[in-house]
Amino acid sequence: MDRYLTIPGLLHESRCRVMIENVIPLLPDSPTVLEIGSFLGKSTNMWLDRLPDNAILDINDSFEIPNTEIREFINTWIDGDYTELFNFLDNGGDQFGVWKMHTDSHPRSHLIRNTYHMRTDDLLLKSTFDNNYDCVFLDADHHGDDVSRQLEYFKDCDLICGDDFEITRWANLVNSVTEFANQNNRVLNHKHGVFWLTK
Predict the structure, then answer these.
(1) Which one, of 93, 95, 100, 38, lies nearest residue 70 by Cα?
(2) Residue 7 carries which DSSP code?
(3) With 32 labelled, which of 12, 58, 92, 109 sits at a CA distance of 20 to 30 A?
(4) b vs e for 112-137, b when ≥16 Cβ sit within 10 Å of the residue's Cβ?
(5) How many C-beta neighbours within 10 Å does residue 185 have?
(6) How many CB atoms lie within 10 A of CB 69?
């Protein structure tokens, strides 16, 4: 069984299936992937489950979500018994610790090359940051200006994808992605809230 199925997360299982069935097959044989926005590691584990053995995966997340919000989200939206996770948080753990617990134990965690523990805006301003990726997954800030800035920064990337392509909840994200696709002659695909842009 894919390990990502056991982890609570914002990227729902149906959307993970879209990534697995529609997006990941578009990658080259030895892909370099950047994931922006990881929450508790569900999406990271999806990548680790399904990327080829010679892939490279970089992670960017500020890991700043308070424990109270993590608990509230899980209790509201996720079915299952997460007593162990809550005990970890109650005993001094935090979002980053949960993410590491879920990823370090993965048998393919060696695919993770870098973990950029910082806000995305700060990462993009780093002079040493190399944005030469085959695929970038955007699932952090959903405000229109933030999404537009990230899309422009990674415009040379062959495959750009992300979550929450929902006009009812994230109209600014949908508008930013659609405008970018039109202005840069990209093919825009979306399904079940996942979008992917190809050249």
Answers:
(1) 95
(2) S
(3) 12
(4) beebbebebeebbeeeeeeeebbbbb
(5) 7
(6) 11
Q: Characterize the bridge pairing of strands 135-138 and 187-191.
A: unpaired
Q: Could you tell me what percent of the chain has a pLDDT over 70?
A: 99
Helices (H), 78-159: 83-90, 95-104, 120-125, 144-153
User: Are residues 61 and 117 in contact, defined by beta-carbon separation less than 8 angstroms?
Assistant: yes
In this structure, what token pair is assigned to residue 90? 């109650």
Residue type, 14: S
Q: How many whole angstroms separate alpha carbon 119 and alpha carbon 148?
A: 16
CA distance 194 to 153: 20
| Dihedrals phi, psi of 141, to nearest 5 degrees | -65, 130
Non-local CB neighbours of 77 within 8 Å, separated by 6+ positions: none
Q: Using one digit for the tens of pLDDT, what is the confidence trace for 20-53?
A: 999 999 999 999 999 999 999 999 999 999 999 9
Q: How far apart are CA 186 and CA 49, in angstroms?
A: 28
Q: 3-state DSSP helix/strand/coil percent for the chain, to nearest 5?
A: 45, 20, 40
Query: Cα 49 from chain centroid?
Result: 14
Half-sphere exposure of 122 (CA within 13 A, CB side): 7
Q: Indicate the pairing of strand 194-198 with strand 187-191.
A: antiparallel
pTM: 0.95
Is the distance from CB of 27 to CB of 19 less than 8 angstroms?
A: no
